[in-house]
Structures are given as C-alpha cells and as structure tokens.
Amino acid sequence: MAQSSSPVSGVAARYAQSLFELASESGAVAEVEKALGSFEALLAESEDLRRLVKSPVFSSEEQVRAIGAIADKAGISGITANFLRVVARNRRLFAIPGMIAGFRQIAAEARGEAAAEVTSATELSAAQVKELQATLKGVAGKDVAVNVTVDPSILGGLIVRMGSRQIDTSLKTKLNSLKLALKEVG
User: Between the N and C ends of the chain, which has fewer C-beta atoms within 10 Å?
Assistant: First the structure.
C-alpha cells in the first residue's frame, strides 16, 4: 500500500492492516469487506453521520454509542461492529473513509487483484462495471476489484484511481481546464 506523509493516511493504513489481519485470522475477509461497504454507503447518504464522524465536538462516549446504534440498526455485527466501536473509542472516526479504502486495497492484494476506486456522475450498470474491469485488467495485468461511488458534481465521465495513478476524464475537470485556458488567452 502506498504510504503518504499525511497523518490521516498513516492512521488509516495501520487500522486497515489490523482489521485485515483480524478478519483474515477469522476467515471473514469477505464479510468484513461487505459490512464496510454498507457503512460507507450509510456515510455517503447521511449528512448527520458525516458530521458525527468528522466533528471533534462529540465525545468519545457519544461517538461509541451512536456508532453502536447505527451498526446495530444497519445489521453490521461481529468484527466490523467491534472495529467501528474501537475506532470511535480511540477518536479516529475522522479517518474511517481511508480505513475502508485501505482495507479494500489490502484485501484485493491478498486475492491477487489490484484495487481501483472509480467515481462516476451516475450509477454504472453491471455491464459497464464489467467492461471497466476488463479495461483496467489490461492496464494492471491482473484482475481488478472496482469500488464505484457516484458523485453527480463531476457532471459526466469518470475518475479512476488505481494505486498511485489517477485518470480524470470528468466533464467538470475538462470544463475547468477550458475555463483556465480561456482566462490565459484573454
């Protein structure tokens, strides 16, 4: 996994590695990966949950209680629920998105796959995801586990992150480049 000097990425990497080791010992890597995906979806849907995760205003006890209730209601149990509670107790919820991405990358590498984070303006169909995986397999030289998130603000196109590479074909980026080019001309 690529290391960065950012304290968030270092914290996230250590927690992700620890969670992977626990899940691997228990034979529950796929279950934990699915549960983390469920929590990530909740995080994407709820502004209140994002505020709980990012805000230092909430005490550790409040975060643990809230995360426990959310995990119970979402059907997240076992290793993943315990992990989320430990992260909350240790005041590290701010790094949970990086922990989830790190866990996915470690799990993909353990399966002999490359991991790719894809951002799309709209939901991709199963056929589009399959075609994207085939294309990325040609680039990476091995199977690619793709995690797709939807961000309507990119307007169109895709942003693909795989390892240290990023390919940004989003309409938003192209429009910003055009705007910059027009400013230079004028």
Answer: C
Distance of alpha carbon 160 from alpha carbon 140, whole angstroms: 13
Backbone angles phi, psi at 86, to 5 degrees: -65, -45
Task: Label residues 76-90 b or e (16+ Cβ within 10 Å = b).
Answer: beebbbebbbebbee
Answer with the residue of higher pLDDT: 164 or 134.
134
Q: Compute the distance between CA of residue 40 and CA of residue 101 in angstroms, rounded to an integer.
A: 10
* Secondary-structure percent of the chain, ordered helix, strand, coil, rounded to 5: 65, 10, 20
Other C-beta atoms lying within 10 Å of the C-beta of residue 183: 8
**Which pLDDT value is given to residue 8?**
54
Cα separation, 35 vs 41, whole angstroms: 10
Query: For residue 138, is pLDDT > 50?
Result: yes
User: Tens digit of pLDDT for each residue in 44-58?
Assistant: 899 999 999 999 999
155 phi-psi bin (left φ>0, alpha ψ -120 to 50, beta other): left
84 Cβ contact list (under 8 Å, min separation 6): 39, 67, 68, 71, 76, 96
